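Our consortium's second objective concerns turning raw sequence data into structural hypotheses that experimental partners can test. To show how far this objective has progressed, the report includes one record in full. It was chosen at random from the queue rather than selected for favorable results. The single chain below, 206 residues long, was entered without modification.
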Amino acid sequence: MTNTSLFDLTSTESVTDAEHSNQFSLDALQQHKQEGLDLAVRARWAALAVVAVLLLILNPRWEMIYPLFLLGLLALNGWVLRRVGRVGQSNSELAFIFIDVVLLAFAVLAPNPLLTDEWPTAFVYEFNAFLYFFVTLMLGGLSYSWRTIMALGHWGAGAWLIGSAVIWWFGVTYPEMTAGIRIALPDHQFMADMIDPNRVDWGRRV
């Protein structure tokens, strides 16, 4: 017959208590994570709805179907992030966060293919698109860990700079516009540079 010592019983009870405590902590973290994701998704949908209404009010043209479609994709991706969000490192969640950043950068920097007006690609900066970029990324702070927020910030900055580089290198330009501005403002070179629609102006983008 094997005798069980008081020390063994105490050790077993301690291990059991620790397991229950760890499970309780994990459940609490998961609940907190889910509540944060729910809040972030609702805030995202509200922000995207406001942006959609503003687009229709400020520019009520049929070409706005394209940016509204991109807003819909951002809303859908937010719903997917809510579904795949988990406590700890989640590769699927990181993948959809990365998709979110790339999609957002594309939405605010890529020209609208439905527009019939001819203007330089860099003119997109005149719409202060970075405000929409910043507001959407800011909502990530409601639900992500500090490591994920750091990654989100680096990905966002990288996507913005890469998009600016693509516009600078491959964007459509109209040199006659720049020449016309310089002719109109021969004694105000700085002002001519500031309002040049072909200029990416890295000093303001970085």
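The partners drew two points from this record. Helices lie at 6-58, 65-84, 91-109, 130-138, 146-170, 175-184, 189-194, 202-205. The mean pLDDT is 78. Both points have been shared with the crystallography group to help prioritize constructs.
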